[in-house]
Write a structure and sequence with these properties.
single chain, mainly alpha, 77% helix, globular, transmembrane helix, Putative MFS family arabinose efflux permease, MFS, transmembrane transporter activity
């Protein structure tokens, strides 16, 4: 095999990183069921359940930021195995206590494991020679664990075993996926020729290009956080919204599972399109579709219109994230800052559910959907600014 071939750009790596990342965001992708089960099984309030997820997201963020210091100095295979073990053990630990204070600690540890796993995946595929394709495929494959969970858990597990059964099943998924760690490379390629191991020297000797790259990376990160805050605010309480509309719980569970299938399709569509249609048009189209889906969810009176809105809404999530992550990797010439894109999910996970829970308690579900729409428009504006400043052809 030619030494010039990028070892990241292999289908086995895409699949392994995708499934491992799927475990890394298992709480985020199953958030409606997690929040619903915390409220139903443990009698927590909406704000208490939202705050538990916020604690998880804060530690997820902390490890993602800290990964800048070590992610290119460690063996990636070993790191993936260790983080997978933390994920499995913390999910199992949720079943051991109903105490809110203890669960704060458990969810915090869980955030460290899942955040480390997801930041690792972002770093690996940030080294790809074709980041738009790589991140599109990653987002598609990482939806697979959630699809399995959303189809199986509401029907086979939660009705009979509740929150404990759900956590047992999710812990088992983490154990099953962990061996895929052996398919990922041990180290990366981006910046290896330039001595990326000495990151402190790079920090002390900035140049105009790297400073510009950092600035654009920060703006892109901000845009993606705003986008995800909006979508997770609605996604986290989608099951609750369905219940308020008197829709059958089992049918809403099926809708959520179909939504994850739609999210997977959205990621693969983004991977196929890449920047063939430029970078403005695909994102403008998806923000318009996002607004339409929110209207359908709000106006829905039947399971059909609710399902249509939810499926369109989830299609937009991974489609949009693929473009945000791809743009971030393109402008990150050092390969260090793309790991921060993992904070899109964690900070968004802090902001979205926390705001949504309080909006629901104070103003109702319509305010949450309006918040989601506002975030989508603002994130698009920032995205277009970055594209313009980076002088992409659009």
């Amino acid at each position: 095999m030619s030494n010039d071939r990028n070892p990241i750009d292999r289908m086995s790596v895409y699949v392994a990183v995708g499934f491992l990342s799927g475990i890394g965001i298992l709480i985020s992708t199953t958030m409606p069921m997690v929040i619903g089960s915390l409220i139903e099984s443990l009698s927590f309030s909406e704000s208490q359940a939202g705050d538990l997820v916020a604690i998880f997201s804060l530690t997820f963020t902390a490890i993602a930021v800290a990964s800048l210091l070590f992610i290119r100095r460690v063996n990636w295979k070993v790191t993936a195995l260790v983080m997978s073990a933390i994920c499995a053990m913390s999910l199992f630990a949720v079943t051991l206590t109903p105490q809110y204070q203890t669960l704060i600690l458990v969810f915090g540890i869980m955030g460290l494991g899942m955040g480390g796993l997801y930041a690792l995946g972002m770093t690996i595929l940030g080294d790809s020679s074709n980041p738009d394709k790589a991140f599109g495929l990653k987002l598609g494959y990482e939806s697979m664990p959630a699809i399995i969970a959303l189809f199986a858990l509401p029907v086979l597990v939660i009705p009979e075993y509740g929150l404990k059964g759900m956590m047992y099943a999710m812990a088992a998924m983490a154990v099953i996926v962990a061996p895929l760690s052996f398919l990922i490379p041990s180290t990366g390629v981006k910046g290896s020729q330039a001595g990326l191991s000495n990151t402190s020297d790079m920090a002390l000797q900035p140049n105009k290009t790297s400073a510009s790259s950092l600035g654009l990376s920060i703006i892109t990160l901000l845009a993606s956080i705003i986008f995800f805050s909006g979508v997770i605010a609605t996604w986290a309480f989608l099951e609750v919204i369905g219940g308020v509309k008197s829709l059958a719980v089992e049918k809403v569970g099926v809708v959520l599972a179909l939504g994850m299938v739609s999210a997977t399709i959205g990621a693969f569509v983004a991977a196929a399109l890449g920047n063939k249609m430029g970078r403005y048009n695909p994102m403008i189209a998806i923000i318009v579709l996002n607004a339409l889906s929110l209207v359908l969810i709000w106006q829905s009176a039947t399971i059909f219109t609710f399902a249509l809105g939810a499926i369109l809404f989830t299609f937009c999530i991974n489609y949009g994230l693929a473009y945000f992550f791809g743009l971030s990797a393109e402008i990150d010439i050092s390969g260090r800052f793309v790991a921060l894109s993992a904070t899109t999910l964690s900070l968004g996970g802090v902001i979205g559910p926390a705001i949504a829970g309080r909006l629901i308690e104070g103003s109702g579900f319509g305010a949450v959907l309006s918040f989601s729409a506002l975030c989508a428009v603002l994130s698009l504006t920032l995205y277009m600014v970055v594209v313009h400043l980076s002088r992409y052809k659009v």
